[in-house]
Write a structure and sequence with these properties.
mainly alpha, 2 strands
């Protein structure tokens, strides 16, 4: 049975479908063509399910409307009839002795593919010109074997549910409750108007659960199997979480904005002592501000050139940052000058620097002195490097034995310069 189908049509769809069912004076093939233009194939099953449930009750649709509904049910799946989910019920309706003869004959014409001439006329003309003696029904088994699958779903003769469309006990079987004849019967009820019938049919097609009342089978839960001592127990974690409030949310960020503005300015020009003190004070009040000040490793060389003291303070506070290695790399890669040596020299006395960084920086300084072509700038840079190395040696920042050969070769090459000769004598005393 298909009486348990869940169908639901939209209001516009039900109105369109009802209009097609009422086109009894229009040729049937014209109605079918209009149906295919109004409904896409994806909605065929829903529409046909709604039509089938209306056909199940003999009082909801007029005779002409029932024939049009059967034509739509067949035509939607006419290419492959065996895949028609409503085929078995249509065959049962064709052999229903309580149905009208013209309805049963019309179904046989549809199934036997002898409906081309019939579909060219309207259902009103078909019913009017129907001759019972000119039609003979085939055997039911032949149609079932030809049009139904071997295992047709829902083909059982025993119903598994009760229909929720119950016949009116005051209406004799086979009579039309809208006819004048029924209105004159003793105990008869007032006749339902045509507009009321159309409204009932349209609303019926929009009911989301329409068709049958299935019994609710009571299935008791199986008993729990006893747990053995050797079995593992399920671990049920406690999912009760507590909300953690972010106290920094909606906090005043004006202080950080001011520092970022000053540091952006520090990349372009030297700051005044007052501005310098203001940055140091803000860093002291909020140690985490240094991570959000906007100075990245790529911008560090500009800060060293314009404001080396601020660069020292910044690197001192970033010494424990995971990105400190990137800052050291940027410091080594920049052009060696007085400001960069000043920054490194102050860092050596403020924090403990990695030995690899110091050695690489010294090597870079020695190589930079050799690469300068201008003699005046070369002599000036050699003096700065010699003074810088003497400061590192006297403060025991570096172990001169690790760089002895390299520094000694540098002093011999520039022995004409007084600071290089002094550095060479210092190396001799430590040897």
């Amino acid at each position: 049975m298909l009486s348990h189908i869940r169908v639901q049509l939209k209001h516009e769809e039900s109105a369109t479908l009802l209009s097609l069912l009422q086109s009894e004076l229009q040729p049937i093939d014209g109605i079918l063509a209009e149906f295919h233009s109004k409904f896409p194939p994806s909605r065929y099953f829903t529409v046909c399910g709604s039509l089938y449930l209306l056909i199940e009750d003999s009082l909801l649709l007029r005779p002409s409307e029932r024939l049009i509904a059967y034509a739509i049910l067949y035509r939607c799946y006419a290419r492959i009839p065996k895949l028609n989910p409503f085929m078995f019920q249509m065959i049962n309706s064709a052999f229903n002795e309580q149905a009208e003869n013209y309805e049963r004959a019309f179904l046989v014409h549809l199934l036997r593919s002898s409906s081309k001439e019939i579909l060219k006329q309207s259902v009103a003309d078909y019913i009017k010109s129907f001759d019972p003696s000119a039609h003979e029904l085939p055997k039911r088994e032949e149609l079932v074997q030809e049009y139904c699958k071997e295992t047709q779903p829902g083909s059982s003769d025993e119903p598994t549910c009760v229909t929720n469309l119950l016949p009116d006990p005051d209406v004799p079987h086979g009579s039309d409750p809208n006819s004048a004849e029924f209105d004159l019967q003793p105990g008869g009820k007032p006749k339902i108007g045509s507009g009321d019938r159309d409204e009932i049919v349209a609303l019926t097609m929009q009911i989301p659960i329409f068709g049958a009342l299935s019994p609710s089978w009571i299935r008791p839960f199986p008993p729990m199997y006893p747990v053995h001592e050797s079995e593992l127990l399920w671990i049920e974690p406690d999912n009760s979480h507590e909300l953690v409030w972010d106290h920094g949310m909606c906090a005043d960020t004006s202080r950080g904005a001011m520092v970022r503005d000053l540091l952006a300015k520090a990349l372009e020009t030297s700051l005044t002592p007052a501005q310098h003190e203001q940055i140091l004070m803000e860093f002291a009040n909020d140690p985490k501000l240094v991570y959000h000040c906007g100075i990245t490793p790529r911008k560090l060389p500009l800060l060293v050139e314009k404001n080396p003291q601020i660069a020292v303070e910044l690197l001192t506070k970033l010494i424990n940052s995971p990105e400190i290695a990137d800052y050291f790399t940027a410091l080594i890669s920049m052009d060696m000058n007085l400001h960069s040596m000043e920054v490194v020299n102050r860092l050596t006395t403020a924090v403990e620097l990695p030995k690899e960084f110091i050695h690489m920086y010294i090597t870079n300084c020695l190589q930079s002195c050799k690469n300068i072509k201008d003699k005046y700038m070369q002599n000036r840079l050699v003096r700065l490097v010699c003074v810088f190395l003497q400061s590192l040696i006297r403060n025991r920042i570096i172990d001169v034995k690790e760089l002895f050969i390299e520094v000694q070769a540098f002093c011999i090459e520039f022995s004409r310069i007084r600071e290089a000769a002094g550095l060479f004598r210092l190396l001799k005393t430590l040897d």
